[in-house]
Structure formats: C-alpha cells, structure tokens
Specification:
mainly alpha; two-stranded antiparallel ribbon; 21 helices
Length: 448
C-alpha cells in the first residue's frame, strides 16, 4: 500500500501540474478543439472511400458493384479528395478560429472569423514551392506526365500539402497569423473606420494591416528557407518522421497508452491531454498515407477500434462483469446504468462511479488491459493477420463495427476487437472479484 501511495503522490504532485499547465495553454486548447471539428470531415470522406471498397467488403457482389456504383467513382471520390485529402485547410481555419476566440476575451475588437481567414491565408502562403539560385527565385517544377499544369508548373506536389502531411504546418502558420493579428489589435496598429460604419466592415478593414504583416512574415520565412533550397514543409519532414516513427512502434504506442491511463487514474482526462492534443494529428496523417497506399499500423482510429473498447481502459469488459457477476448492489446497479453508454465507448460513469480514479483495486487492470490489447492489435497488424486502417470511423462505433469499417470490411478485424474484449474481461476479473467482495462485505455489515 505504501508503494501505491507513492505512485499516487508522484502522479499528483510531479506529473499532473506541468501537464495541466500544458493542457490549459490557449494554443493547446485551440488545437484540441480544431481536432474535434475536423473529425466529421474525415468520417464523411471515409464513407465514400468505403463505397470504393465494397467489392472487398462483399466479394460475392463484386461484379455487381463494378458494373454499377463503381462506374461513378470519379464523381463521388471528389468528396474524399475535398475532405480527407484537404484536411489541413480545415485545421488551419479551425485552429485560427478557436485561438482568436480565446483572445477575444481580452480584445473584443478581434473577430474569430477574420482570425480564421488570416490563419488560412498564412497556410496558403506555404504551399507553393520556391527555390532561389544565383539570386533568382523560381518555382520548382514537377515533370510528372500526369500532373495538372498551371502556368507551366505541375500542381501535384502542391496539392498534396493540403492533405494530412500539411496539418502541422497549418497549425503552426495559423498560430503565427493569430499572434500577429492579436498584436496589431492590442497595440492599436489597425485601420479605424468612421463612426456609423457597420461593425462587420470595421473588423474586416482592421485585418488589412495584420494581413500585410502576415504576408511579409511568410515571404521572409519562405525566402530564407529558399536560399537553403528547402521550405517549411520539407524542413518539418525529418523531425515529423522521427516522431511518427516513435508513435508507429510497439514500444511507442505502449508508452502513449501508459501515460494516458496513468493520468486517468488520478482524475485527469488523459485522452484529451495526450491523444486528442498530440497523437490525433499524427494518426490522421498516417490515415491519409494509408489511403494512398502506405502501410502504417498506428493510423486513423486504431485506438478506438482495438483498445478503447467501452472507453479508455477497455472498460466494457469490466461493465459486463458488473452486470452479470457483481454481488454488491453498488457495482450491479452501476453496471446496468453504464452498459448502454459503454457499448458506445462512453465510460465516465464507470471511471468516476466505480470508481477507478484512485482505486487500488481497479487501477491496475485499467492500465494493464489497454497495454495488452494494443500489443495484440499491433502484432496482428504487423504480421498482416488483419488489414491496415484505411477509413475514419466515429469514435462511438460499437465494438467490431468500427474495426470492420475502418479496415475496409475485414472480418478478421472484428475478431481481433472481440478477442481483445475477452482479454480485457479476463484481466479485470480477479481485481473486480476482490473489489466486489469487499463492497459486498461492507453491504452486509451495513444491513446488520
């Protein structure tokens, strides 16, 4: 028990304060909110991507699909192109919007809409590739035969920057744009319109000088990097690939799961702080790469498909034990109340109702079950026992449903998800039994 208290003390006094400060930064909050806003677009794009995979999902009907709906693929695939393959645009707009919204509490003159447009403007200024040689700037050429040519320059390499690979640049440039906008408003470096001019018009003109500063800032950044024959997108590739490599390894994913659940057991929303803030953009990039033929394991909704079965901690197994095996009234009633939300991966009733937070009986399986589950799913994917993830799914998808759709209709993914559920149930069982017996004994003592 002393060791357990020491663990709680370390988490509460050493780990939580800096992480809480980090999570409460307005920039981090804006990125988190932007991630939530962009989820529907990835799901919509994935719906039409699934249509293209119908022959693989239902092989007996493949000839029928090929002669009917797939003939319209160039028409409806535009939805995927303009959602998943353009996701960085949504990130730029949303990040700038929410960051400006937070500043508006101090500077009422700022407009969240104007902020979002400025953020997008800054991002767009990074798209075109320019090089400087012998003191002369020139657009980089792409000689691919199938490229779309505009003013003598192929657009293929530019357009790909709107997809997942451009997310981090979209976030960085949006933050820079809003900081410049905020500085100009705060220091009153704006154009003031006469009284009587509508408020919307005044705010629009107030963005003119910030837009000029943003344009010059981005031109200078692009120009300096062009002197070294690179640009923002290229310069971020190496460190980003390193980070993505960590999150794509078994050990990296295990560490992520460990941190998320260590935070949860002391009452901090580990999913929001770690996964939603830092990991989701990487997963989205990996998903867009998979759609285009890559082979990333940790991509898309890997976590919700195979690990968060019932929510963080794989608690659906625990809820099933409560419903069918609990002797204590507390766990029996909690199980009945939590089973429906648990089927849709909502488990706050269990985390705070059992509780799991600060509970030495349940915190161990709460941390252990996700690590076991992620190991099973990772090695099953790495050994090609199941297809890689190629579609986004709603995080509330019931067990097996998301795994089936996310892998393009692979029934083996359903088996992996159910197998992980059984494993989590077995891991929870001895700890659940001890805790239930304790509560049942207390219940009998109270009645006596």
């Amino acid at each position: 028990m002393r060791r357990m208290n020491a663990v709680f003390s370390f988490l509460e006094n050493k780990l939580m304060p800096p992480l809480n400060k980090l999570a409460n930064l307005r920039v981090i909050q804006a990125i988190m909110q932007a991630g939530v806003v962009t989820v529907p677009f990835t799901i919509v794009g994935s719906i039409f991507l699934i249509i293209n995979n119908l022959p693989q999902i239902i092989p007996p009907l493949a000839p029928f699909f090929e002669q009917t709906v797939l003939k319209l693929s160039p028409l409806y695939s535009v939805v995927t192109t303009m959602s998943i393959d353009s996701i960085a645009i949504f990130y730029a707009l949303a990040t700038a919007f929410y960051l400006t919204e937070s500043y508006r509490q101090e500077e009422k003159q700022m407009s969240s809409f104007v902020g979002s447009i400025l953020g997008l403007f800054a991002f767009l200024l990074t798209i075109v590739q320019v090089d400087i040689q012998n003191g002369e700037a020139q657009l980089l050429q792409n000689n691919a035969e199938d490229s779309i040519i505009y003013n003598g320059v192929a657009l293929d390499s530019w357009v790909t920057r709107f997809s997942g690979v451009g997310i981090f640049i979209a976030i960085l440039t949006s933050i820079l744009a809003v900081q410049i906008y905020h500085y100009c408003i705060k220091k009153n470096v704006t154009i003031h319109m006469p009284e009587g001019v509508p408020d919307g018009v005044s705010k629009a003109f107030a963005s003119l000088i910030p837009a000029i500063f943003i344009a010059f800032a981005m031109v200078i950044i692009n120009g300096v990097l062009a002197l070294f024959h690179t640009d923002l997108h290229a310069i971020l590739t190496e460190p980003f690939e390193f980070v993505k490599g960590l999150t794509g390894s078994w050990l990296g994913i295990v560490v992520i799961m460990l941190l998320i659940h260590l935070l949860w057991v002391v009452g901090v929303h580990g999913t929001a702080i770690i996964k939603n803030s830092f990991i989701n953009p990487i997963l989205l990039v990996a998903l867009t790469e998979n759609i285009n033929g890559a082979d990333n394991i940790f991509a898309g909704d890997f976590v919700n498909m195979y690990i968060f079965l019932g929510g963080a901690g794989s608690t659906l197994g625990l809820v099933l034990l409560m419903v069918f095996k609990a002797k204590s009234d507390q766990l029996k009633l909690l199980g009945r109340a939590a089973i429906l939300p648990g089927l849709f991966n909502i488990n706050e009733p269990v985390i705070f109702g059992a509780p799991i937070v600060y509970n030495p009986y349940l915190m161990i399986p709460f941390i252990l079950a996700p690590i076991v589950n992620v190991s099973v799913a990772y090695f099953a994917s790495s050994m090609d026992l199941v297809n890689k993830i190629i579609s986004g799914i709603p995080w509330i998808s019931p067990i097996g449903t998301g795994a089936f759709l996310g892998t393009g209709g692979d029934f083996r993914a359903v088996f992996i998800a159910i197998f992980n559920l059984v494993l989590s149930l077995l891991i929870y069982y001895p700890f659940f039994k001890m805790y239930d017996n304790k509560l049942y004994s207390q219940q009998k003592e109270d009645k006596e």
